[in-house]
User: Fold this.
Amino acid sequence: MSDSTHAWSTRPETSADTTAVHAINSAAFETPSEADLVDALRTDPAAWIDGLSIVTEAADGALVGHVLFTRCHVDGHAALALAPCAVLPEFQRTGAGSAAIRTGLEAARAKGENLVLVLGHADYYPRFGFTPASGFGVRAPFEVPDEAMMALSLDPSRATPRGTIQYPAAFGI
Ligand SMILES: CC(C)(COP(=O)(O)OP(=O)(O)OC[C@H]1O[C@@H](n2cnc3c(N)ncnc32)[C@H](O)[C@@H]1OP(=O)(O)O)[C@@H](O)C(=O)NCCC(=O)NCCS
Assistant:
């Protein structure tokens, strides 16, 4: 259950947040790989989209969570990759991650984005509307359990591309 005592605020990251965003990703994951990935993506203008790196802020202004959406492609058509999402361990399961993801999805929708892809926990992302990417005819460019590669259409009235995901170079895929 998410902790309703926390009313998290969320906003796009600014240039003042990069150290805190690195620290959140370093703390949330076992290795610095995800933190370094975020920094690499930030320097890639083909991948980075201003306004789609979202931070969750505590009442005292400290940052506790982060989610990033970057440009990927499916069969040459633009899509978004949600990765990574991270919350400081002491604040996990208090809604900080969900708050950032919901804000990021709304920001993406407002920018006219449609297809969003995520590789992650199959019991976490469906709450945001994600379903197996295979149902969209979208495949990961590597072996992955079907339920872990998920997709969401922000505007179901629009067609979505089918094919294999091409990640930004920083993912090293
Ligand atoms: C996964 C993560 C981003 C979720 O953010 P969060 O703020 O802790 O989660 P929220 O409070 O928004 O949501 C809580 C829900 O997430 C679920 N959840 C949290 N971590 C989970 C995990 N590792 N696996 C599956 N579900 C998880 C909880 O079960 C909870 O579900 P419930 O509300 O039904 O009880 C965060 O726990 C984290 O940073 N984990 C370590 C890094 C990581 O694994 N990132 C995701 C890569 S896909």
Observations:
- The longest strand covers residues 63-74.
- The helical segments are 18-28, 33-42, 96-110.
